[in-house]
Amino acid sequence: MLAGDQQPLEAFIQGLEEYPPNRVPGTAVFMSMIVNTVPPALLHNLKHNKVLHEQVLFVTVARADAPYVTYNERYTLKRLGRSSWEVVAKWGFKQEPNVPQLLQQLRGEHPEIKLEPMMTSYFLSRQTLIVGNKEPLRRRWRRLLFAFMARNAARSTRFYKIPPNQVVEMGMQLEI
């Protein structure tokens, strides 16, 4: 899904505030690749499960142009609604991102955000690339190679140090 295909997050959250879905206890952390856009995992969760957690965090991880980002400059936080926040986290290019550690920092600095580790679920979008058969093999070999490399890339849970037993992956197939 391209950035141009995604809805603005703030307008979407306002709509959810006006017409709220059923709420379940706990915190949902939706990992997002693009700031201020609705993550596909949220749309899939609402479509299939028809519920939203009592508290929602939208986390986007950005890479800084510096080798290190200090602890105090690690994130920006923006309140989107009564129980929704957008977090943009930054790590330097020599640092390893650690999302649970970031959430602990948020918990300590913002008591209005209730972040109980065992009541927190992480929602990720998993995209599987499918190579179409519309072109002869000699022209689509690059796409086949790219799809192969994407399947063998490191999992988001490992890269961001997210506990695998707290992850819900919402999948989609993209044809390239």
Quote the average pLDDT. 86
Q: Which class do the helix and strand fractions yield?
A: alpha/beta
Distance between the termini: 11 Å
Overall 3D shape? globular
Largest sheet: 6 strands, mixed
Number of helices, where a helix is a run of at least 4 consecutive DSSP H or I residues: 5
What does the radius of gyration come to? 18 Å
Order of strands, main sheet, comes to: 3-4-2-1-5-6
Order of secondary-structure elements: HEHEEEHEHHE
Share in helix = 25-40%
Q: Point out poorly predicted stretches.
A: none
What portion of the residues fall into strands of 2 or more residues? 25-35%
Number of strands: 6
Topology diagram in text:
Elements: H1 9-18, E1 22-32, H2 40-49, E2 51-63, E3 75-81, E4 84-91, H3 99-109, E5 120-130, H4 137-151, H5 156-159, E6 167-175
Parallel strand pairs: 1-2, 1-5, 2-4, 5-6
Antiparallel strand pairs: 3-4
Structure keywords:
alpha/beta; six-stranded mixed β-sheet; 5 helices; 6 strands; globular
Could you walk me through the main structural features you see in this protein, from its secondary elements to its overall organization?
With 176 residues, the chain is α/β, with parallel strands linked by helices. The chain is 28% helix and 34% strand. The chain has a six-stranded mixed beta sheet with strand order 3-4-2-1-5-6. A hairpin with a 2-residue loop joins strand 3 (75-81) and strand 4. The longest helix has 15 residues, at 137-151. It starts with 8 loop residues before the first helix and ends with a strand.
